[in-house]
């Protein structure tokens, strides 16, 4: 029998006055016409930005669930949100298929700047970095664009490295002059952005994943490795410095499905890496809204373990975003029992709570999580690949 914990469910409404917080057990049914595909926190946990299918961004408190206000301006799907950080703590950015990257002030809830990639363009991802921490890189169709975000002037355009939509751009943590781009064309490209940026001189290496790339992130000592999730639900781990593959899970969805007792894993939402313990998890979900945190062994014997935690009963549809708050001890002191938040296509924004046994020195995959996975019962499953 699966145990359930309580959660907050926030119902998105069409006007500011209608927004409210409803406290319900996990079996509650709360509906909305607006999906919630992207979530992002401010570093000090005082604000959480949530993008809606209405092309607006709403701001909440991630600790109390209090609704603040809405930021409007985009005219198409919002693909990514990011808070700028210590250099401008009250500013967050959002990119959209309307071809713009917009900056918003969380005090006035107004747009303070707008970068445009041009007519008929779409921006799928962006990242801040560079040696002077002044560059903003963006994936725009088959191009990688660069601006100086302090002056809003375009610095470079790379248009020869990819042939299809660039879905991800990330400056490498601890290597801020290095940029990794990934595309529907199946390629990941590593660039050096320390000088004048161009395709000929600054493309250091190319990694061929072989299929359309959806997400990537970094792991390992000095972030010298990266994980890659594809649009056909495969997972691979690479050493980006040497352009060498370390692990390839072409049957990732089948491996995850075989390691728990619920329905088949239908898709992967994200990966999370805990540097203190050098541990990687892939987060798989079902079409009914249940999520599992599956530990990934990518050294030596390559395998998925049974889920360390299962988030069950909050969503009724596909989940698009997962943000743990208590990972690596960075959770808010005011509410150490909050595990994190999830947003889905069912229009629900769910806050997941751990139990009273939570200790701030424990990792966020400890036994105090929402639901503990039972012992594995192996059974025959459909093989997706």
From TrEMBL:
The keyword Calcium does not apply. It comes from the Eukaryota. WD repeats lie at residues 71-114. InterPro entries: WD40/YVTN_repeat-like_dom_sf (IPR015943), WD40_repeat_dom_sf (IPR036322), WD40_rpt (IPR001680), WDR89 (IPR039328). SMART domains: WD40. Keywords: Repeat, WD repeat. It holds the Pfam family WD40. PROSITE patterns: WD_REPEATS_2. PANTHER family: WD REPEAT-CONTAINING PROTEIN 89. This is Transducin/WD40 repeat-like superfamily protein.
């Amino acid at each position: 029998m699966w145990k359930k914990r309580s959660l907050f469910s926030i119902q998105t409404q069409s006007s500011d006055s209608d927004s409210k917080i409803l406290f319900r057990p996990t079996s509650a049914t709360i509906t909305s016409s607006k999906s919630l595909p992207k979530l992002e926190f401010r570093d000090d946990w005082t604000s959480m930005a949530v993008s809606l299918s209405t092309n607006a961004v709403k701001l909440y408190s991630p600790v109390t669930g209090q609704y603040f206000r809405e930021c409007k301006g985009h005219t198409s799907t919002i693909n990514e949100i990011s808070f700028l950080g210590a250099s401008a703590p009250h500013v967050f950015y959002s990119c959209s298929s309307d071809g713009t990257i917009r900056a918003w002030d969380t005090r006035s809830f107004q747009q303070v700047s707008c970068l445009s990639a041009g007519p008929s363009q779409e921006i799928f991802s962006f990242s801040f970095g560079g040696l002077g921490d002044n560059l903003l890189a963006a994936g725009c169709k088959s191009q990688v664009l660069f601006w100086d975000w302090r002056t809003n002037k375009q610095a470079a355009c790379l248009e020869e490295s990819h042939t299809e939509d660039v879905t991800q751009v990330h400056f490498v943590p601890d290597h801020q002059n290095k940029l990794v781009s990934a595309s529907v064309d199946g390629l990941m490209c590593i660039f050096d952005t320390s000088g004048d940026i161009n395709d000929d001189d600054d493309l250091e290496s190319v990694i061929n994943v072989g299929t359309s790339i959806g997400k990537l992130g970094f792991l390992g000592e000095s972030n010298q490795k990266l994980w890659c999730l594809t649009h056909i639900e495969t997972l691979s781990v690479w050493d980006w410095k040497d352009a060498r593959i370390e692990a390839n899970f072409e049957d990732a969805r089948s491996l995850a499905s075989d390691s728990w007792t619920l329905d088949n894993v239908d898709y992967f939402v994200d990966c999370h890496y805990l540097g203190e313990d050098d541990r990687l998890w892939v987060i798989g979900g079902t079409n009914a809204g249940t999520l599992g945190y599956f530990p990934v062994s990518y050294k030596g014997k390559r395998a998925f373990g049974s889920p360390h935690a299962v988030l069950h009963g909050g969503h009724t549809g596909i989940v698009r975003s997962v943000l743990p708050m208590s990972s690596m001890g960075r959770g808010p002191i005011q509410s150490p029992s909050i595990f994190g938040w999830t947003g889905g296509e069912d229009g629900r924004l769910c806050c997941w709570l751990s139990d009273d046994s939570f200790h701030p020195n424990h990792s966020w995959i400890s036994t105090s999580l929402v639901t503990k996975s039972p012992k594995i019962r192996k059974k025959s499953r459909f093989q997706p690949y």
